[in-house]
Each structure stands twice: as structure tokens, then as C-alpha cells.
Amino acid sequence: MSGITGQFAGTAAIELRALAFSYGETAILRNIGLDLERGRTLALLGPSGCGKTTLLRLLAGLLAPTIGTISIGGRLMADANARLFVPPERRGLGMVFQDYALWPHMSVAGNVAFPLEMAGLGRAEIEHRVMAVLDRVGLAPLAARGPGDLSGGQQQRVAIARAIVGEPGLLLFDEPLSNLDRELREALAVDLAALLSDLGVSAVYVTHDQGEAFTIADQVAVMRGGAIIQCAEPQTLVSAPASVEVAEFLKLGTVVEAERQADGAWQLCGTGIHLAPGSEGPAAAARARIMLGRKAIDVLAPEAADANGQVVRALFRGDSYALSVALGEGAARVVVETVSGLRRTVGEKVGLAIEPGGLRWFPAN
Ligand SMILES: Nc1ncnc2c1ncn2[C@@H]1O[C@H](COP(=O)(O)OP(=O)(O)OP(=O)(O)O)[C@@H](O)[C@H]1O
Fold first, then answer.
1. What ipTM was predicted for this assembly?
2. Spacing, Cα 28 to ligand 1 middle (Å)
3. Does the Cβ of 23 fall within 6 Å of ligand 1?
4. Does residue 27's CB lie within 6 angstroms of at least one atom of ligand 1?
5. What is the pTM of this model?
6. What is the CATH number of the domain that holds 65?
7. Which domain holds residue 140?
8. Which of 41, 75, 123, 275 sits in a 20 to 30 Å window from 207, CA-based?
9. Are residues 73 and 207 in the same domain?
């Protein structure tokens, strides 16, 4: 699908406006609005079935939107109202598939040359472009090798070289690392992040792996049920999740109901834990939901804290213990996640203290 169209001149890599897609009566994507600056990488992150692949296909031109518009590199590619639709081969895109889809019977140079041959370029031009792009991704010395004789990282570079040889304005990645084991995936994600930043290309990367999205992307769109529920830099998603849904999807901590006492102080429902004076809550509300990040809870000796709980799970993490601690009884029982530098065992009683700075407040249900 690599276009031989040259880099886009516009400033925005992607602009999506009020985008929606349905299969017949079934709505798959709704009201998607999104901007990506040139040279940046966007990850589409969400659980299976949330619509990531469908959105990537709309960008690629393999599907047409039911409502809304898609611009890539400042060029309108699809407008449902105006019945405008630019086909995939004229969108100037490069695509990197799952497992890279390299041809095993062709050399590295042959794989990279393929899109240019399809576009009908002359032999000398193809050779020149292929060597230039292999040089950019650091693979020129391996041009004559077969993909089977390369490491995972080198294969990834061949796939990217093939995707960028036509100088696309936008690279699309469809879960390229999802079939690999965790260690290799993490190493390749770090490599890929560095390569994309060196190349300065604009890219969209579909994944259901949060670690991968945070490593690779400048901006992450968290998707759920066909909508983008927050789109921000990874650091912002963690420090200021827009909703309980985002906080829970990113596993940022435990969400607990809280209520304001007669004296104005806040208590975590069912736990007996009072928040220190000065903890902010929604100004006028009597109830709220609070997300307790792992680092917002200190584990103390039972007699040193005003709230006690019981350890129900303790996982050794090499340098600390990840603990689940149950507080309260019956329907009011809540289990919070925390970390402890000291060894704790299941069944042990511990004291808990809350760091007000580590709390995120959300409106009550
Ligand atoms: N041809 C189709 N007809 C009807 N529904 C479809 C079709 N293709 C996909 N869907 C539905 O659209 C929804 C979104 O699918 P999509 O593949 O975009 O999700 P995804 O987030 O990429 O999931 P995964 O990570 O599992 O690939 C799913 O509920 C899926 O069942």
C-alpha cells in the first residue's frame, strides 16, 4: 500500500472529525474526533472489540466512514456527507503488518524494493531508493541476506524500510508485536520507539498492550466500546485520567466510594479510613469516587495507623511486595492494592495510611 507520493506538506498528520462507522444497524465507532501532529506517533489502545482495527482500516481506506471526515497530511481523504472517498493506494500510506509479513524467498533488498516495483519505477531508481532507505534504518550491510537470517529487531527494520521506501506521509501499524513473547516484544518496542523518532515519520499504532503503547507513542487514544474515552500523552493519562473508566483500564489503582462526614472531612466508605484534613474533594458534593494509586497507600504496623486491614494476596516483585489488602466487612468490604518494601504474608494484619497527594477524585455514580 506504500504510496510513491512524497512526504506531506501540511502540519497535521491526521484530523478526524465526528467520525462514525456502522455495519448495517450495528454501530462500531461513534463520534471520533482526533488530531495528530506531523512526526508524532499515536497509539490506539483498548481491549479486544473496542474498534481499534476498524479505525485503522478507516484511515487506510479499506472502509468508508458512515458519518464524518478523515484528513491525512492536510488532504481530505473521506467525507461521508460529500460522498468523497480516496482509495487506499492514493492515500500515501505505509503499512506494517502483524509479524511483519516479510517474503521469506526474497532478500532484504528484494522485500524493500517490492512496493517500488509494483509502482513501476525504473531499476536504477529502485536500487538507489532501496539502498538509501536501508542505510537510514541501519541495514545496508545486510541487503543481500534473507529475512530468515535476521534477528527479530532486524526483521522489524526491514518491515519498516519496506513501509517507508515510498516516502509515505503516514505509517500504520496493526499490532506488529502481538504474537511475540513478552521479552522480545519489550525489546522491539524500545527499538521501534527510537527508530520512529529518528525517522521523524507520523505513525498510528494499534495495540491492546499498555506497556507497548506507552513505550512507542507520543499520544495514546484509549478506546472503549467504539469511542475514544481519553487521548493524551502517556504521562497525562497516568497523572490525570479523565474518568474512572480510564483509570480502571490502565490499572492505576483501586477506586473506592467516599462520603463527606458532618464535620466536612472525607471518609472512604466501609473502611473507617479518614482522609487527612485538607484533602480536596468536589466542593459541594456529599459523595465522590476516589482512585487510590498504589503509591497513595503506605503500609504500617497495625498499631501505628488508624485503619487496619488484612493481606489477602502478596506477590514478591524482586524489590518489593505487591499487596492486596481487604478493609471493612460484608457488603462494605473493599480490597485495595499497594506495595510494601517489607515482606508481608497472606492473613497478616497491617495498618494503612493514605497520602492525600496520590488520590484522584471523580464524581460519584
Ligand atoms: N464485518 C463485520 N461485521 C460486523 N461486525 C464486525 C465486523 N468486523 C468487526 N466487527 C465488530 O466490530 C467491533 C470492533 O472490531 P475491531 O476489530 O475494530 O476491534 P479491535 O479493537 O481491533 O479488537 P481486536 O483487538 O480483537 O482486533 C467488534 O465488536 C467486532 O465484532
1. 0.96
2. 7
3. yes
4. no
5. 0.86
6. 3.40.50.300
7. 12-244
8. 75
9. yes
